[in-house]
Amino acid sequence: MTNHEDNEEKKTFQVVDRRRFDSAGNSKAESISTATVPIGSESPAAATEKKTSSREFHMESSKPTESQVNFSSFVMSLATQAMVQLGQMSPPPGFDIPVDKEAGRGTIDILSMLQQKTVGNLSNEEAKLLEEILHSLRVAYVRK
Known about the structure:
2 strands, elongated
């Protein structure tokens, strides 16, 4: 009796690694690395992953940097959303957002709730920003 595998050609597939960075986070050269792996065997990436997974990784201790998202930017994003909903501002290119007064009113209500819940916890600049934004949005809503 003959071995079925010997009679049949071994099947393989090609793996193309198009990632821009290597496992250490360094930028790779422009060339694309490829590997041909027999079906049923472990891929080179899986073998490398097993080797690196046993290592311990430590987070670098550095001074915490200020986040890009803060209260003022959050309020501004909600205000922009309300302005688009009320038709006071055009939507971003490629988006067709219809004017929706009720959605705009809901966003204004959210900003109003934030104002009520944060009394005494905001800096003078944040409180003034929120007050001015709410005033202009309410006027825009009444005009609509």
